[in-house]
Design a protein that fits this description.
By secondary structure, the chain is an alpha/beta fold. The protein has 16 helices and 13 strands. α2 (23-35) runs antiparallel to α11 (276-287), α4 packs across α5 (94-101) and α13 packs across α16 (401-419).
């Protein structure tokens, strides 16, 4: 099969993270198109079932992005003006943006050496206004979600629920009785914590299936529900399904049944459902995720790990520890002692050698909007130090061992050129 156009354009460079688009994916999309059912339909429902089965979550809803999915979770929990949501300073802007969307205040805390949120910093940031904590998995490595849930539970005496909140006939804040733990697992689909796949630890876990993610649906996301008793996951799923379709009581698939055209609108909802075209891609990806995708990504990261082992110029990322195993989404290499300017010069030198790399992420306090909100990077020294010398190397299914070695060579030569060592 001929390469897609953008691949031909950049054929002279090793790309950073192109999606795996092969005949199986093209055929699945074609079948979806020819079926006549291209919006939310049977493929989406099957995709949800497969994700839930894979992750071990009681219920999953697939939506059009992590961002919209996670924002719905905040709205379901009744978070709004006057409330606070704790987020790490080191994350993509979407984590904090959704807090701003609902009118609440993102409270930033620093991170650990492994890029994930610092549980002790979370504990210190808790107040009577804290309604949610969003631990973020970075590069595929899960945050210490168990610690975050424990801290939220221990601080339940600080939690002040909204007594007049009613969602689907219930008050979720009164039911849970503590800050909601909404895990940002955009990077970590398939990762494990204490042997269980990510999705079984937080109250709600949000996944991303964006084009560069390990498992893609082009654009897309999902929420895995793992709420404690007395929550009814079928009830919660039904509410989110309605909320994601303008508050309409029936989706298109339900209305297709004979005589079932009539619907109601229960709330002024949103429009962020996943389509069957997206789910068609996701089902192909699910079928080969554990047998093909994850083993290859693991092998690539381990090859990088070995190549940089013992070289004092580099700080290798944590891929796993005694309780966590990452999904090998990114290989976040750090150049020891490099300044931000030197890091940027190294990236430019790597590009001249035909390799595309990236940086994950620019910390929130360095972004114009959040800087304008009064956040200062000096308050988050660990986040600043990690960002200053981080370079993300290419990791994708079709990356060959030979190309991995070329990346390593380009990085080492570029560091020597810029750093003089």
């Amino acid at each position: 099969m001929d390469a897609v156009p953008w691949v031909r354009i950049f054929a002279s460079m090793i790309p950073f993270s192109p999606p795996r688009i092969d005949d199986k994916v093209v055929k699945a999309v074609e079948e979806a198109l020819r079926s006549g059912w291209i919006t939310t339909g049977p493929r989406v429902k099957e995709f949800e079932r497969r994700i839930a089965e894979y992750c071990g979550a009681p219920k999953v809803i697939a939506l059009n992005s992590w961002t919209n999915a996670a924002e719905l979770a905040l709205r379901w929990y009744g978070i709004g003006p006057g409330d606070e949501v704790i987020v790490p300073a080191y994350t993509y802007c979407a984590t904090a943006n959704i807090v701003m969307h609902v009118g609440a205040k993102p409270v930033m805390v620093d991170v650990l050496d492994d890029f994930t949120i610092d549980p002790d910093a979370v504990r210190k940031a808790l107040t009577v206004r804290t309604k949610c904590i969003i631990p973020v998995d970075i590069g595929g490595l899960p945050a210490r979600v168990h610690d975050i849930v424990r801290i939220a539970t221990e601080a339940c005496h600080l939690f002040t629920p909204k007594v007049n909140l009613r969602v689907a006939g219930s008050n979720p804040q009164m039911r849970l009785g503590r800050a909601l733990v909404l895990a940002d697992a955009a990077h970590s689909f398939g990762a494990r914590i204490k042997g269980a796949r990510v999705g079984m630890q937080a109250d709600i876990t949000g996944y991303s299936f964006h084009a560069v993610k390990n498992l893609t649906t082009a654009e897309g996301g999902a929420l895995a529900f793992n709420l404690p008793e007395p929550f009814d996951h079928e009830e919660v799923y039904a509410y989110f399904n309605t909320l994601s379709l303008h508050g309409q009581s029936k989706d298109a698939l339900a209305k297709l049944q004979p005589g079932a055209w009539r619907y109601d609108v229960a709330m002024p909802g949103f429009k962020c459902n996943m389509t069957d075209i997206q789910a068609a891609i996701g089902l192909v990806e699910m079928e080969r995720y554990e047998s093909e995708t994850q083993p290859r990504r693991r092998a690539i990261c381990e090859r990088y790990h070995k190549a940089f082992e013992g070289d004092a110029r580099f700080i290798r990322p944590l891929l796993a520890d005694e309780t966590r195993e990452g999904s090998h989404h990114l290989y976040m290499l750090r150049v020891s002692g490099a300044s931000e300017e030197q890091r940027d010069a190294i990236i430019a030198a790597i590009a001249k050698r035909g390799v595309s790399v990236n940086v994950h992420f620019i910390p929130l306090p360095l972004l114009s909007f959040y800087k304008g909100q009064g956040h200062q990077i000096s308050a988050y020294p660990k986040a600043q130090a990690l960002y200053t010398n981080e370079i993300s190397l290419p990791v994708f299914y079709d990356l060959t061992d030979k190309q991995v070695d070329e990346v390593v060579k380009a990085v080492k030569r570029s560091v020597a050129e810029v750093m003089g060592a």
